[in-house]
Design a protein that fits this description.
Blueprint: H1 5-12, H2 16-32, E1 37-41, E2 44-49, E3 52-59, E4 64-68, E5 80-81, E6 88-92, H3 100-112, E7 114-115, E8 129-130
Antiparallel strand pairs: 1-2, 2-3, 3-4, 4-6, 5-6, 7-8
Length: 131
C-alpha cells in the first residue's frame, strides 16, 4: 500500500512529536490492513475496507487520537468509548505509549468486527453489524 499524498501532507503540518506518533500509527495500520484504502476525510487520515471507515488518527490539542469506528465492540479495556455510536479511542502523548502488540490486535479486530458506517445515512442513522 502506498500512503496517499494527502495523508503525508497532513502529517507534514504536525509538530515533531505528533508526526512521530502519527507515522508510527500509520505504519502499523498499513502493515496490518494492507487491503485498506486511505485518504484524508473530514480533515483526518482515515482507512476504509470496502468503503466502510475502519480507523483514523487525529491531532488534538494535547494528544493524538486513534479512533476505531467499531471499537466499542472490541471488548478492549484500554479503548475508551467515543460518541453515541460504536466508536472507541486511545490517545497518545508520546511515541513510547504505543504498544504495537496491542495495536495489532485492535487492527485485526477492526477488520473482523465492523458496523456499517458506509450506509448509516441511507439507513436513517441505524447501525447494522457487518460480517
Amino acid at each position: 500500500m502506498t500512503t496517499s499524498s494527502d495523508i503525508l501532507d497532513y502529517e507534514s503540518e504536525l509538530t515533531e512529536w505528533e508526526r512521530m506518533i502519527c507515522e508510527a500509527l500509520r505504519n502499523e495500520i498499513e502493515s496490518s490492513l494492507p487491503e485498506a484504502t486511505s485518504k484524508v476525510w473530514h480533515g483526518h487520515p482515515v482507512w476504509f475496507l470496502d468503503n466502510n471507515p475502519i480507523v483514523w488518527y487525529s491531532k488534538l490539542k494535547d494528544s493524538v487520537q486513534l479512533l476505531f469506528w467499531s471499537g466499542q465492540s472490541f471488548d478492549e479495556v484500554w479503548l475508551m468509548n467515543n460518541g453515541g455510536f460504536k466508536a472507541a479511542e486511545k490517545r497518545y502523548t508520546t511515541l513510547e505509549q504505543i504498544d504495537t502488540i496491542e495495536l495489532s490486535r485492535w487492527l485485526t479486530k477492526s477488520r473482523d468486527i465492523q458496523w456499517d458506517y458506509a450506509n448509516i445515512v441511507k439507513k436513517k442513522w441505524k447501525l447494522e453489524r457487518l460480517k
